[in-house]
């Protein structure tokens, strides 16, 4: 077990599967044998060579992959809460452990944080070494693919839904129905909200409807805004989540919000243009960014998945072996897949 296969993204659409040493665990570390590791849209920033996390530090020098799940195969001498054989997902943010954000469970907000797959080695490999505190125990009934998707995809949207305040009285709009938006449909419905889901791709709309969306719309339909108003009884949406990063979607969502509504920006975009006077100020709307989730939220994430019988494997449209990484990233980049997962 001295060598393993691992995937690197050096940029310019290059994908390299290299043989590297299996990492040795330190006192506080664990070694996880990977069984599933997802490709995320943010990985394409590494694929192209313009990482959205880490800036110049993230140049493809690390094993990629920030949505991993597997089985613990070795533990450091100081590790007491995990054992070999434990089935786990992995939290992507490694924090300093002592700042106010880490102590609150928000390691992804730590000023010294490292991100799996971007600024430290990630999960697109046969094995992954991480601090034991980053492990997320999963139930025996949860498959490795579901465990991997429960983190960045579902967990991020679960957290966004809670920040938006989704409950049984909510009317929520979700723009962009890739894996994130589809996860948002599942999370918002599980939390009791009525959901209108919007995407210009007909297949994505049909899939969102099968996941329980109350109304699916093509945002390019000139009547879409009127249909949202009808859906909301003429009052507007109580909440909106944008997973597209598209400026037109930002404006459409803000226009659709009711007074005192809340909107989460989830989709990446370097810049956008909105109209603060009419969209924010006059309606006293709250707009915020929502990225990933606090590690302290994971038990609620699991309870929601289990309690509502949510089948996260439905979101995985394609699976690949590590040696197929070049094909996997090319197909993902060309949108021939939705959620793509490396499996062993």
Automatic annotation (TrEMBL):
Pfam family name, one: ADH_N
Enoyl reductase (ER) domain span: 11-342
UniProt keyword list: Metal-binding, Oxidoreductase, Zinc
PROSITE patterns: ADH_ZINC (PS00059)
Cofactor(s) demanded: Zn(2+)
Domain of life, source organism: Bacteria
InterPro entries in alphabetical order: ADH-like_C, ADH-like_N, ADH_Zn_CS, ER, GroES-like_sf, NAD(P)-bd_dom_sf, Zn_alcohol_dh
UniProt cross-references to SUPFAM superfamilies, sorted A to Z: GroES-like, NAD(P)-binding Rossmann-fold domains
SMART domains: PKS_ER (SM00829)
Gene Ontology MF terms: oxidoreductase activity, acting on the CH-OH group of donors, NAD or NADP as acceptor; zinc ion binding
Record-stated family: Belongs to the zinc-containing alcohol dehydrogenase family.
Protein's name in the database: Oxidoreductase
Protein source organism: Devosia pacifica
